[in-house]
Amino acid sequence: MEFSFTAEQEELRKTVRRFLDNESTEQTVRKLMETPSGYDPRVWQRMASELSLVGLAIPEQYGGAGLSAVETGLAMEEMGRALFCGPYLSTAVLASGALLRCASEAAKKRFLPEIASGKTIATLAVAEQPGHLDIAALKTSAKRDGSSYKIDGIKNFVLDGASAGVIFVAAREGGALSLFACDANASGLGREPLPTLDLTRKLGRISFSGASAEKISSADISAPLADTIALATAILAAEQAGGAARCLDMATEYAKTRLQFGRAIGSFQAIKHKCADMLVEVEFARSAAYNAAFAAADSSRDDLAAAADIAKSYCSEAFFHCAAENIQIHGGMGFTWEHPAHLYFKRARASSVIFGDPIEHRDKLAASLGI
Amino acid sequence: MPEHQITEEEVRERVRALLKEAHPDKTDQFTFRGKQFDHGLAWVHFPKGYGGLGISPGMQTIVADELHRNAKTTYDDMAINPIGIGMGAPTVLTHGTEWMKTNLLRRIFTGEDIWCQLFSEPGAGSDVAGLATRAVREGDYWKVNGQKVWTTLAHVSRWGMLLARTNPDAPKHSGMSYFLLDMKSPGVDVRPLYQITGEAEFNEIFLTDVQVPADRIMGKEGEGWKVAITTLMNERTAIGGATARRGGGAIGVLVDLWKSRAPAMYSAAHETVMRDRITRLYIESELLRMTNLRARAARKAGNPGPEGSVAKLAQAELNKRIWECAMDVIGGESLVYEPGFARRRPAANDHPSRLLQAKYQFLRSRANSIEGGTSEVMRNILGERVLGLPGEPRGDKDIPWKNIPRSA
């Protein structure tokens, strides 16, 4: 297995970093996190049309760039560094991933070009309860109603659930799990934005009370849905790796310039060794995230689920630890609202739970390894 | 320099040509490896005539692969002559005299001459540049007196890489010189050093009025530290850089021990805790392996840099935790330490059972975070060289070595 990126991939990373340096400054992040939708439509449109970032992994036949999870992961790593506020994980990763894996050809043709062009913000609604995600235990139900369906149930912690224009929802029709498309304005759909710990990523609670929806899958989607979530887990791990790296940069920069007892605090081993341990974690997190993205992109590999478990378990803890140490190294300054350290700390905490916490991923990995 | 870029296929052809001339299944180690050296396939990135072809070090994996495909007998550099091949050869190539390059490199590679490294002293561990072994010039010789310690393979070595103080009035880093020591010289006394496992893997060396010819110096007089850095950088790569297969190495043994535990050996709650702990160690082992692969890919063109230090630190700390966990897995069995370790020289692979391996490695792995740079020193290196943090204020800079306070 090779762990290297092509020149084009490195160029993409640079392009995304440059773009986010301008469009996702701390000031912008702070402004957007106070808004209900949490993103800037103008920036989103530029990301879609100028940089082709939204449709990065969508095949060209559906209006995307036809690249892979490797590129998506690189872009997300940069977004994680910049604490980018926008519906990338929901729209570009989860919703388009679910369409590609679960939906009919007609649905792909209809929704994917709209997503890639930046016109549609979409999300995927799966989880219903806090606690580990058990696809087999999903209760949300669908009943045929003429040519469409009525959905009943509650979906919780839906990424951008209150702002997405279309919600793809996993619901059970009898025993089989299917994918449905539900317009945000459908009757019977209640959307409640959740007040989030991490202000930079919006979540919603969606109640379906006979909400009108269209069925867009044919066979049972349990397996491709699990695969979609594994993909999103891998990509989220890349965002975490980027966040961890940024925390290390902030901590190191501060340790070089903050003087106490007549010396830079980074000259004290107590601080220096924290930074060194963070460096090891950042490098391991990158290895984990790259491996998971390569596993998702390479159809000859069958270890995406395990690679995503490894990545999410490790990157969650690495990001949290780096974010926490960043606060500690910044001292009193790190505890203030004005300093961005808390934004990363909260992002780290929240992202460690999304798609399952580290213990859950280790539990799944252990089962697959027979440990 | 090569006249043109040698392709992978051309390297394979050269290996096949070597095999026609000498085949490892049909001849002995010294003969075969001598021919491998002559064909430039010992270290392909070394210059022609010195065991290489002057091409990218990444091509060495092609040589190994082609040999592996065509021969049953394969040789492990690290088993044949770990210090000589891992550290001696790059040091000789970079700093050695023409005589040394011509006469020593081939015999290092074949394993005819085993090498050892004489840096550490009882009073100079992490601060190896504070060492006190003295070399005094007397005519055509240097007369050496002092004590070295933790010397792997000294009891079978032909040559030692000796770092000694030649000018005690100079600041410590500029008062050392690097010598090639003939281990058979009169006054070289090698004694086994018994360690925590009961074995003597290492030695201590007493040097009493040992005469070293003046032309056995590597680099210039007073510039021994620069030469030592070459040796040490290669040491860190050699220790941290190994890449096992997925789930192999120490973690493989731990997982096997866990899977083969007796039924109902532990309560359900106990098992749940252990399972998470083992899985965590599995994940970190995988990530160490992958990080090594990344570092190798990044290094393909050049020399090992500080990125090898990430692996060294991580490997040392992880390995200790794996074997601590293994002792927890075997439970009461860990109370029993089979006889056989005490007061002897260990041979390679002589802990055949996994149970025995766990008990032995539990003890042996304590050295992982001490040997080749303590974890504390590695964190300083990462902090200062990689992250660019400032150094500690020091009590030994720019003053004559003889005035620096030292432990008795």
Class per helix and strand makeup of chain B: alpha+beta
CATH topology name of the largest domain in chain A: Butyryl-CoA Dehydrogenase, subunit A, domain 3
> What's the CATH architecture name of the largest domain in chain B?
Up-down Bundle
Output the CATH class name of the largest domain in chain A.
Answer: Mainly Alpha
Identify the overall geometry of chain B: globular
Show unreliable segments of chain A.
none
Query: For the record, what is the CATH homologous superfamily label of the largest domain in chain B?
Result: Butyryl-CoA Dehydrogenase, subunit A, domain 3
- Uncertain residue ranges of chain B: none
Distance between the termini of chain B: 51 Å
- CATH topological fold name of the largest domain in chain B: Butyryl-CoA Dehydrogenase, subunit A, domain 3
Number of strands of chain B: 8
Ends apart, CA distance between termini of chain A: 24 Å
Structure classification of chain A: alpha+beta
According to DSSP, the number of beta strands of chain A is 9
Oligomer: heterodimer
Provide a descriptive summary of the structure in words:
- The complex is a heterodimer of chains A (371) and B (408).
- Chain A has 371 residues and is α+β, with helices and mostly antiparallel strands.
- Chain A contains 11 helices and 9 strands.
- In chain A, strands 1, 2, 3, 4, 5, 6 and 7 form a 7-stranded mixed β-sheet that branches. In chain A, strands 8-9 form a two-stranded antiparallel ribbon.
- In chain A, strand 4 and strand 5 (176-183) form a beta hairpin.
- The mean pLDDT of chain A is 96.
- Chain B has 408 residues and is an alpha+beta fold.
- Chain B folds into 3 domains: 8-110, Acyl-CoA dehydrogenase/oxidase, N-terminal domain (Butyryl-Coa Dehydrogenase, subunit A, domain 1), CATH 1.10.540; 115-221, Butyryl-CoA Dehydrogenase, subunit A, domain 2; 241-373, Butyryl-CoA Dehydrogenase, subunit A, domain 3 (Up-down Bundle).
- Helices cover 42% and strands 13% of the residues of chain B.
- Chain B contains 12 helices and 8 strands.
- Chain B has helices spanning 8-21, 29-38, 60-70, 77-80, 82-95, 98-110, 224-240, 249-259, 268-299, 307-330, 354-364, 375-386; strands at residues 115-118, 134-138, 141-149, 159-165, 176-182, 188-193, 202-213, 217-218.
- A 4-stranded mixed β-sheet of chain B has the order 1-4-5-8. A 4-stranded antiparallel β-sheet of chain B has the order 2-3-7-6, with no helix packed on it.
- In chain B, a hairpin with a 2-residue loop joins strand 2 and strand 3 (141-149).
- Chain B is globular and about 75 Å long.
- The mean pLDDT of chain B is 90.
- Chains A and B meet through helix 7, strand 9, helix 8, helix 9 and helix 11 of A and helix 8, helix 9, helix 10 and helix 12 of B.
